[in-house]
Design a protein that fits this description.
This protein has about 700 residues and is of the alpha/beta class. It is about 40% helix and about 10% strand. The chain contains 23 helices and 18 strands. The strands form three sheets. A ten-stranded mixed beta sheet has the order 7-6-15-14-13-8-12-11-9-10. A hairpin with a 6-residue loop joins β4 and β5. The longest helix is centred in the N-terminal third of the chain and has 27 residues, at about 130-155. The structure holds adenosine-5'-triphosphate (ATP). Adenosine-5'-triphosphate binds near residues 300 and 301.
């Protein structure tokens, strides 16, 4: 698209041939019914008046002579009129240029003098007829020439009119082409001086152009032509139409497919601000992952609500959502989510589940002949084209809905996951019919590494600190005039959206999200109920993969009318650790878990069990107790454990915590637990759900 624009921009220059010079009239046949004669007439018309005036003077001379040939009084009157008319012309031309004033006065003086002489002596007397035949066309032509020159001077196609502006900003010899004027948007092709200036120079001058025009910096943008280093398009949006807040009124496409665009606000020219998640093989568009970045108060919450309400209103998508802020903003939508967890360890479980779901989903898509997810994949598989049966008959497998995995306020989660894990997820998720969303409060390098940032191709860049602009937007988009740092949190909801499917020349156009007020809560609740009843349910392949990791912690979306299962609780992460990296209570720090337990006569495996009775359980009994404890955690949906979680259990069973730490290590060796990225915390490998 940008490419097409730039091609058009090239042709708009007057020096690029007849097309621009002829103007739209030639193409549309405007004023001439489409014929060449009509066109020529249309072009000649403005130049006729001087010729008509010459003709009228000749006729007036003949008529005057017929009436006043022998009248002395008429001679005096005509001479006086001629002088007066010339004087009046000179006086009236005061406000105009010196040149035009002189030209007009000479024309009037010559015309009126000839008329006076013709009236008195006759138009053919002496040299009068020759004077008329030679002088008349000369005077008329002088006006025609003048008109042609003036038109070219004032023509915005020429470089003259705009040279002032570009000269002012240090781009002398650059040219502006035909400006396309729309309501509140002027677009003009730019050709910079060959061999002297580059698109970079233009990008650097945008601030000065805005200053010369007395406009905010964000009102002036430049879209460089990808095929040229000295051509592009200057876009000026004089009035900030985003100043008016527009409230969210409901989803744009209830019951539509997730493949259709998500509408989250509008651009400054009023067109819809939209983005696409799944790829489209026909449109050559890749699926994408999204970063929602903005400083506190920039309107990140509302941007996320816009996205989430759009997603939940589609028929073929499920959402897994992690929110460390305990669903403060998203509570009304929670019943519509397939899986909702708070931050901390439940989020780790979700990450592990996503990792497990990706290969399972990719395999299923491949087995059914899909190179990437398309809406058809979410329907029951009834075609021969998409069957997993070796005999080629329709397999009838249930469809696989698109999956959105969303990590709200994700800085900690990403740090814990590590770059490799996250970039691995994002790379592989694209072929698994999945989009990852990450929202970040402080979009900066200390919150997210460059490789993680690079794995999120789409961004919704809300207001940020000017120093973080380079983190959220690419150099190209910044060079085109995007300035999220200029908004900070003073313009909530203002954003730039960079995402596949959006024309690149839109990347630097600001948009604004819809605002969510208390009135929206009721609509969101209704939407969540709609999603519960009509939204997609998890397919068996994804459900199997996630259950194998999350066990009973994954419940799927609650049925309408059911209580939403409580989101998994976060556990404290800042507990002290012993020197082996295991979590211990402060009073246990320093105890060697491998050392013989006090009072134990049977070695390290003997728990302090049933001390009241003095009975000491055998190591085997103690191990069974521990296994039952893990099962209990698993059935309660608590899939990540550390020594801290066994405190009550230890007290109940008179077991020591160091002993528990040793058992945890042992269970990890036996495959019952998996280490997590947090030292001393283990993820239970489910046996109940898998059984
Ligand atoms: N598109 C919008 N138009 C007008 N006002 C908006 C828009 N989006 C958000 N706001 C308002 O801006 C304020 C801040 O928004 P919000 O709480 O969503 O910011 P935030 O970036 O999520 O901040 P934090 O990270 O601190 O929660 C709120 O009062 C909200 O109503």
């Amino acid at each position: 698209m940008a490419r097409n624009n730039s091609r058009r921009a090239r042709h708009d220059f007057p020096d690029d041939g007849m097309l621009a010079f002829a103007g739209p009239g030639l193409l549309s046949g405007e004023g001439g019914g489409g014929s060449v004669r009509g066109y020529l007439l249309h072009r000649v018309k403005p130049h006729l008046p001087p010729w008509l005036a010459v003709g009228a003077t000749g006729v007036a001379g003949a008529l005057g002579h017929w009436r006043w040939a022998d009248s002395a009084a008429a001679g005096v009157g005509l001479t006086l009129s001629s002088v007066l008319l010339t004087g009046a012309t000179w006086w009236a031309g005061k406000a105009t240029s010196q040149q035009r004033r002189l030209h007009s006065a000479i024309t009037v003086a010559a015309g009126s003098a000839w008329l006076t002489a013709a009236c008195l002596a006759g138009p053919t007397a002496g040299p009068l007829d020759d004077l008329f035949l030679m002088g008349g066309p000369v005077v008329a032509l002088s006006w025609n020439v003048r008109m042609v020159l003036r038109r070219n001077d004032a023509d915005p196609q020429g470089d003259g009119a705009d040279k002032g502006l570009l000269e002012k900003v240090g781009l002398a010899r650059a040219m502006l082409g035909t400006a396309k004027v729309e309501p509140n948007r002027v677009t003009a092709p730019v050709a910079l001086a060959a061999g002297e200036q580059t698109n970079d120079d233009m990008a650097k001058s945008l601030g000065r152009i805005a200053s010369a025009l007395d406009l905010p910096t964000s009102a002036v943008r430049y879209n460089p032509d990808p095929d040229s280093s000295r051509r592009g398009e200057l876009v000026i949006v004089p009035e900030d139409m985003l100043g008016d807040v527009v409230e969210w009124e409901g989803p744009s496409n209830l019951g539509g497919s997730i493949a259709e665009p998500l509408v989250i606000g509008r651009y400054d020219d009023g067109s819809p601000l939209q983005m696409w998640l799944p790829g489209d093989p026909e449109a050559g568009r890749n699926s994408t992952h999204v970063l929602v970045a903005g400083m506190s108060g920039s309107g990140k919450g509302d941007a996320a609500l816009n996205l989430l309400t759009e997603i939940l209103s589609r028929r073929d998508v499920i959402v897994w959502f992690s929110d460390p802020k305990a669903f403060q903003d998203f509570a009304p939508l929670r019943p519509g989510l397939d899986w909702a967890v708070e931050g901390g360890s439940p989020t780790e479980v979700m990450v592990a589940a996503v990792q497990a779901a990706i290969p399972a989903r990719t395999r299923w898509l491949g087995a059914h002949g899909y190179r990437q997810w398309v809406p058809e994949a979410a329907e029951q598989q009834t075609s021969r084209e998409h069957t997993c049966r070796p005999d080629g008959r329709p397999c009838g497998c249930p469809g696989m809905p698109f999956l959105v995995a969303w990590w709200e306020e994700a800085a900690n989660t990403l740090r814990n996951m590590g770059d490799d894990a996250f970039t691995g997820i994002t790379q592989e998720a694209r072929s698994a019919g999945m989009a990852a969303f990450v929202s970040l409060q402080r979009p900066s390098y200390d919150q997210m590494s460059t490789s993680t940032r690079a794995s999120l191709p789409s961004v919704i860049a809300l207001g940020c600190d000017p120093r973080d602009e380079g983190f959220v937007l690419s150099d190209d988009v910044l060079a085109a005039g995007a300035r999220p740092g200029a908004w900070g949190n003073r313009r909530p909801g203002y954003c730039y959206v960079v995402s596949p499917g959006i024309p690149e020349d839109r990347y630097a156009s600001p948009g604004r999200t819809f605002r969510f007020t208390h009135r929206a809560v009721e609509v969101m609740e209704l939407l969540a109920q709609w999603a519960q009843r009509n939204g997609a349910t998890t397919d068996p392949v994804t459900a199997g993969a996630v259950s194998a990791v999350a066990g009973t912690a994954y419940t799927g979306r609650a049925q309408p009318g059911d209580e939403q299962p409580a989101p998994l609780r976060a556990v404290q992460e800042d507990e002290p650790m012993d020197n082996s990296g295991l979590l211990v209570d402060p009073e246990d720090a320093g105890i060697d878990p491998e050392a013989d337990l006090p009072g134990s006569e049977q070695g390290d495996d003997t728990p302090i069990f049933g001390q009241e009775t003095g009975r000491k359980p055998t190591p085997e009994e103690a191990r069974q107790l521990f296994a039952r404890a893990l099962e209990e955690f698993e059935s309660n949906g608590q899939m990540i454990v550390g020594p801290k979680d066994f405190m009550d259990w230890c007290e109940r069973n008179n077991l020591s915590r160091p002993w528990v730490s040793a058992r945890l290590k042992e269970a990890a060796e036996n495959g019952r637990l998996e280490p997590t990225n947090t030292t001393g915390r283990w993820r239970i490998v489910p046996t109940l759900a898998a059984a």
